[in-house]
Amino acid sequence: GAGVSQSPSNKVTEKGKDVELRCDPISGHTALYWYRQSLGQGLEFLIYFQGNSAPDKSGLPSDRFSAERTGGSVSTLTIQRTQQEDSAVYLCASSLQGAPETQYFGPGTRLLVL
Amino acid sequence: GESVGLHLPTLSVQEGDNSIINCAYSNSASDYFIWYKQESGKGPQFIIDIRSNMDKRQGQRVTVLLNKTVKHLSLQIAATQPGDSAVYFCAENRGGATNKLIFGTGTLLAVQP
Questions:
Q1: What torsion do the CA atoms of B37, A100, B92, B99 make, to the nearest 10 degrees?
Q2: Contacts 24+ apart (CB under 8 A), B3-9
Q3: Chain B residue closest in CA terms to A55
Q4: DSSP assigned state of A71
């Protein structure tokens, strides 16, 4: 595909359950970012992967949040023991070099925790 | 804390008019700025960017102005069209080792036919 893809597009879960969100970046992009967007708000940085370097996890809101990037491509964001305040749109972006150049965003995963 | 903010949360314009969306930033060390457009149900889409060594950059129907003296960024859209209706975000990169973007809260642009 030509762009960043994310799955699922929508996820409804019950409080306390774990969820996994997937991101497929643009082929060849070495940098991958996760953001969270609450309703009517801007984007909140969560985590950043660049090549084989240690990820920048400074934006993760709690230890219930974790992310992996396997083989330098696909990334999974995991939220354990979900809470209602985790409800948001989770956006993934990738960029070619990891510099602050253009980040291309996926359509997002809309997470609703009941 | 330091942040990027927008002056106007909602902007309503008539089709064909020019639109100006403003953004204030507080970190003088920021060296790169981007404007994104986000339509309902979609991810943000890159519009235009500018580096801190420039004060103006033009694209197709869009112009970004950077005033480092007052830490102000604006996006001008010429001959606004209904398809321009969206939320517009400014974002800054503060340089250094991190490449994460700090986003403002967004401005909703509503184009009236």
A1: 120
A2: B3/B102, B3/B104, B4/B90, B4/B91, B4/B92, B4/B102, B4/B103, B4/B104, B5/B104, B5/B105, B6/B90, B6/B104, B6/B105, B6/B106, B6/B107, B8/B107, B9/B105, B9/B106, B9/B107, B9/B108
A3: B98
A4: T
Q: Which helix (H) or strand (E) holds A47?
A: strand A43-50
Of residues A106 and B6, more confidently modeled: A106
> Taking all residues of chain A, what is their mean pLDDT, rounded to a whole number?
91
Q: What integer pLDDT is reported at residue A100 of this predicted model?
A: 59
Tell me if A41 and B89 make a contact (CB, 8 A cut-off).
Answer: no
Q: Which residues on chain B are in Cβ contact (under 8 Å) with A95?
A: 99
Using the Cβ of A34 and the Cβ atoms of chain B, whether some distance falls under 8 Å is answered with no
pLDDT tens per residue across span A87-106: 999 999 998 876 556 789 99
CB contact under 8 A, A102 and B49: yes
